[in-house]
Amino acid sequence: QVQLVESGGGLVQPGGSLRLSCAASGNIFSISLVAWYRQAPGKEREPVAVISSGGSTNYADSVKGRFTISRDNAKNTVYLQMNSLKPEDTAVYYCTVEGIYWGQGTQVTVSS
After folding, report:
1. CA–CA distance from 28 to each of 33, 51, 75, 110 (Å)?
2. Average pLDDT value for the chain
3. Stretch 80-91: mean pLDDT
4. 74 pLDDT higher than 80
5. Strand, coil or helix: what is 23?
6. Which residues sit opposite 34 in a β-bridge?
7. Sign of the CA dihedral running 5, 111, 37, 40
8. Residue 76 CB-density burial (10 A; 0-12 exposed, 13-18 middle, 19+ buried)
9. pLDDT surpasses 90 at 35
10. 3-class SS at 86?
């Protein structure tokens, strides 16, 4: 059973930065599609960024130029660097492997 653990969330002011981490229990990232999703209160879960096993990335239009997804296969960890954060980025952020395995989520709150 694959386990994913997200960390790095917190409270940040608008314009600030956070780096989220998603650590896997096994060595699966190197052969898997990994994505970050988020869910704001009262809204559906939406994709934020995805990275393929080959390192190709794709982003939601709302975060392009501000967020960067990356992976460290040696550490079985995927990151989401979030810069220039906005209040509308406030949500619980989840990582997923192939849309099958999900972490428990980490809260990101952007507020002054």
Report:
1. 9, 13, 11, 31
2. 94
3. 98
4. yes
5. strand
6. 51, 97
7. positive
8. middle
9. yes
10. coil
